[in-house]
Specification:
Layout (H helix, E strand, L loop, with lengths): L12 E6 L3 E3 L9 E6 L2 E7 L2 E8 L4 E2 L2 H4 L7 E4 L3 E7 L1 H10 L1 H34 L1
Helix pairs in contact: 2-3
Length: 138
């Protein structure tokens, strides 16, 4: 899933991260930032029943951390750089609201992807929980 935020934002703040860097950890309080992958690869890892499980990999064009802006909830997973380096664009709520007002298609596209992502993550968590339950019984 990707959202080409660069179509909507010319001067997105950017940071470079190195392999092994943790962008944020599961249950960290929200810092109000949403991130976009311009270059590199990151792993999304979630503890399920006390065990870390990689849910997905994020590559160029992907976004993450949107719930920090949409509902200010704690981080639901850990995101860690897996490539030699990653170039990440980010925006905060103020910039997000500005873009949303001037480009409603951006907001619509984002929300559509978020809804799809929530369904996919719930399916993945259910699958991992079933596998763990089967291992414990067997």
């Amino acid at each position: 899933m990707s959202l080409n935020v660069f179509e909507y934002v010319n001067n997105l703040a950017v940071e470079i991260r190195r392999e092994g860097d943790c962008i944020f950890r599961q249950d960290d309080p929200s810092d109000g930032r949403m991130y976009f992958v311009a270059e590199g690869e990151l792993a999304v890892i979630r503890n399920i029943e006390g065990e870390p499980h990689e849910l997905t990999r994020l590559r160029e064009g992907a976004f993450f951390g949107e719930m920090a802006i949409l509902n200010k909830s704690d981080r639901s997973a850990t995101v860690q750089v897996t490539s030699k380096q990653a170039k990440l664009g980010f925006l905060d709520e103020t910039v997000f609201m500005k873009i949303s007002r001037t480009n409603p298609i951006f907001l619509y596209s984002l929300l559509k992807l978020v809804i799809q992502r929530i369904g996919n993550v719930e399916d993945e968590i259910d699958e991992v929980a079933k596998e763990l339950s089967a291992l414990r019984r067997g």
